[in-house]
From TrEMBL:
Organism: Reinekea thalattae
Species classification: Bacteria, Pseudomonadati, Pseudomonadota, Gammaproteobacteria, Oceanospirillales
SUPFAM superfamilies linked to this entry: OsmC-like
InterPro entries to which the protein is assigned, alphabetical: KH_dom-like_a/b, OsmC/Ohr_fam, OsmC/Ohrsf
Domain of life: Bacteria
Protein name: OsmC family protein
PANTHER family reported for this sequence: PROTEIN YHFA
One Pfam family named in its UniProt record: OsmC
Length: 141
């Protein structure tokens, strides 16, 4: 896997991912309305959310659960000192589907956390405390 990062101005950088996607990352994201993209730490949080969400939906589909939507909310705390690493992250899954089984959803969340989500496992090994919760919404469709 490779990526290319190019400095544009101040704290703004463009990126091109190995798969060809392009975007901006901006260290001034929280300080400036002119920021060109999310901060690097926001991208790490988004990457974690995408990784674990993919796992949960995939596991549920393989278990023949009728998932129609999955929203994942992440809340992170960072150290007060430099480096301001993540210290805690809570991941909350809101899974919508038809007759979803509680045990299957709980199992999917646990398998992602304990076995499949590379981002989650990497962060935990680095000392980040990651917790999970979920809720199920019955689909009316």
């Amino acid at each position: 896997m490779k990526a290319t990062i190019e400095w544009h101005s101040d704290k703004a950088f463009s990126y091109q991912s190995n798969s060809g996607f392009k975007g901006f990352v901006d260290g001034a994201a929280k300080d400036s309305a002119d920021a060109k993209g999310p901060s690097p730490m926001e991208l790490i949080l988004v990457g974690l959310g995408g990784c674990t969400s993919y796992d949960v939906v995939s596991i549920l589909q393989k278990a023949r659960q009728q998932v129609v939507d999955c929203k994942t909310q992440l809340q992170a705390e960072r150290a007060d000192t430099v480096p301001a690493v993540f210290t805690k992250i809570h991941i909350h899954f809101i899974v919508t589907g038809k007759a979803l089984k509680e045990a299957q959803v709980a199992r999917a969340v646990a398998l992602s956390a304990e076995k499949y989500c590379s981002a989650s496992l990497m962060l935990e090994r680095g000392g980040v405390e990651i917790t999970h919760s979920h809720e199920i919404i019955e689909s009316n469709d």
